[in-house]
Amino acid sequence: MIAALIFYMFAAFTVGAGVMVISARNPVHSVLFLILAFFNAAGLFLLLGAEFLAMVLVVVYVGAVAVLFLFVVMMLDINLSELREGFLTYLPTGGVIALVLLVELAVTFGGWAFAPDVEALVQAPVQAAASGVTNTEALGALIYTKYVFLFQASGLILLVAMIGTILLTLRTRPGSRKQKIAAQVARTAKNSVELVKVPTGGGI
Amino acid sequence: MTQTFAFSSLVPALPELFLTVAALALLMLGVFRKEDGCRQSTLLAIIAMAIALVLTSQLGGSVSYAFGGGEAGLFVMDGFGAFTKAMVLLGSAFTLGMSGTFLEREKIGRFEYPVLVLFATVGMMIMISANDFMSLYLGLELQSLSLYVLAAYHRDNLKATEAGVKYFVLGALASGMLLYGASLLYGFVGTTSFDGLAKVFGAEHAVRPSLGVIIGMVFVLAGLAFKISAVPFHMWAPDVYEGAPTPVTAFFAVAPKIAALALFTRVITGPFGDLAGEWRQVVIFLALASMFLGAFAAIGQTNIKRLMAYSSIGHVGFALVGIAANSVLGIQGLLIYLAIYLFMNTGVFAIILSMRQKGRLVEGIDDLAGLGKTHPAMAFVMMVLMFSMAGIPPLAGFWGKLYVFLAAVESGLMALAILGVLSSVVSAYYYLRIIKVMYFDEALEPFDRQTDRPMRLVMGLSALVVLVFTFIPGPLLVGAKAAAAVLFPAAAG
């Protein structure tokens, strides 16, 4: 009973925040609503007993992605009213495409079936809750043993992304002023302060 | 719960592991050196590829799995894998060898270039050895991400940047389609392993595939068709080929294509092997559309890099005919075709890279005018390669096409074979036009002398291979047949 109530609370907040993300006038508000939606989705995961996914959602999406969005929104001066100008003209086309996709999804899932002995085929069966293994533990045991290859390959992909970013954006700018700490530390009073003896009433 | 880990279980993936470590080492070397070091890194990368080639050739003897229990492992190494990996490594090494001087002359030589090529090659090898949709996807992304960066490598050039962005956006879309399809399949079967899927669709269980499975399979095929630039997923190819720096274009045209076609073959013969009735029409459509678009769209081109893009679309169509045949003969034809394609294309790109007038790079087909008088040797190589590409007997390209069409006829796809031959006649027009321009048009300005030794080596080698295959086809035929038979264990046993 209480679990159902909590579910409806999280679900309603998620949907409501989602609607606000696309309807808010101020883009900063949109991002803040997005964060609210993420938190409530994390709550939904918790209800399902997937505590690891809940934490990852908060850490990755709220901690990194949403903050990145916030940066982008604040750094770029986006004129939203200009973006919204074509909204009504594109609505019919977009609506038709959305409808087609919806029908396709309905057809796919309406006729959905599972392979007959799907239970025996499942790649990484979930351990029974009674065994006392939390799903963080279970995921860790899979990722670092059975799927270590995939884990390392993902690492390589991220490395390539990093190399690519540096390759495409890093430039040496001759005119830029960098802080040279060594030079700052090496400064002494002798070469930066000049003592001038000013005669009384004489001026410089 | 405790399992012991034996290093010997990694042996099937040894070439990949070696190349990865080599790439990381080259990255470190490049970062800690003061000067640019593009040339040195390139040389070391080629050596690393040669070592990986030797390792690969030692492994293809039997089917072995790594990373996971037995046949459900994430990674498979077999004769087919060894054959295609050898082609990919050769293609990558050739293009790396050709790019050193070019990059230096254009003053865009940086040590990241060979490193990215190495990572792309590792990705391709993982693709070829994928035995699970997850390793397939990761290999594909590792390769694609490196290629996106390489396309935009000349970052101060507007066209190169456009090529990179276009490739990236469309590539991401294709990856999305592939993932969507894979998730539908996973939803049906509960496993992403190729062997698990093959068991469900195969004779043992013989499940009548539901609608969701068919949609999933078509999405996977569409995602893969994008990566091999088969029509109607080819739109990115001409723009990316034209915009990217020429050595990068040469790389795009050879190694990733071979790897993606090998992956396509593995997916279609492995998990979907017994769904031939469902996917055959898709592959036949892709093949026909690619062959005809490649033939007709190339006619109006004036830029030779764009022309090569359309030509490669056409070649993918011919290769797909071999896959549509779905037999040992068909895959053998495909492998022969790809091997010949590898040498023809590297040769042609070596010539395109030599098209310089007074140190300036030119890309027009008209700029080739009079090559027969000014550079007879270069023109002769180009003529051999063009005749071969057009499929004029007795050159190698003809045999490639012959084996593919023969397999199609054997599998009862007579109409497909006839239409394929017709499109090949159309495409002969633009290959022959290049020969005509070279030998019968007046030269306006001769090209600079090609002094780069690796470039001349690649040029000579490619013409030599095309000619040698014409007279001694035996070894390639036998090798390709052994590699193809691995994918059809039922037919062999």
Instruction: Assign the CATH architecture of the domain at 1-78 in chain A.
Output: Up-down Bundle
Please, what is the oligomeric state? heterodimer
State mean pLDDT of chain A (0 to 100 scale).
85
* CATH class term of the domain at 1-78 in chain A: Mainly Alpha
The value of Rg of chain B in angstroms is 22 Å
Strands of the largest sheet of chain B, in order across it?
1-2
Question: Can you describe this structure?
Answer:
The complex is a heterodimer of chains A (204) and B (493). Chain A is built from nine helices and no strands. With 204 residues, chain A is mainly alpha-helical. The longest helix of chain A has 25 residues, at 51-75. In chain A, helix 1 (2-23) runs antiparallel to helix 2 (27-47) and helix 7 (135-146) crosses helix 8 (148-169). Chain A has helices at 2-23, 27-47, 51-75, 80-83, 87-110, 118-121, 135-146, 148-169, 181-186. Chain A has a domain at 1-78: Up-down Bundle (Four Helix Bundle (Hemerythrin (Met), subunit A)), CATH 1.20.120. In chain A, 9% of the residues are buried. Chain B is an all-alpha fold. Chain B has a domain at 278-493. Helices cover 73% and strands 2% of the residues of chain B. In chain B, the strands form two sheets. Chain B has a two-stranded antiparallel ribbon. In chain B, a hairpin with an 8-residue loop joins strand 1 (64-66) and strand 2 (75-77). In chain B, helix 12 (304-325) runs antiparallel to helix 17 (414-440), helix 13 (328-353) runs antiparallel to helix 18 (453-471) and helix 16 packs antiparallel against helix 17. Chain B is globular and about 70 Å long. In chain B, 61% of the residues are buried. Chain A binds chain B through residues 104, 107-109, 111-119, 121-123, 141, 145-150, 153-154, 156-157, 159-161, 163-164, 166-168, and chain B through 1, 3, 13, 20, 27, 66-68, 72, 74-75, 110, 112, 115-116, 119, 122, 126, 134-135, 138-139, 141-142, 145-146, 148-149, 152-153, 155, 164, 184, 187-193, 196, 199-200, 205, 207, 210-212, 215.
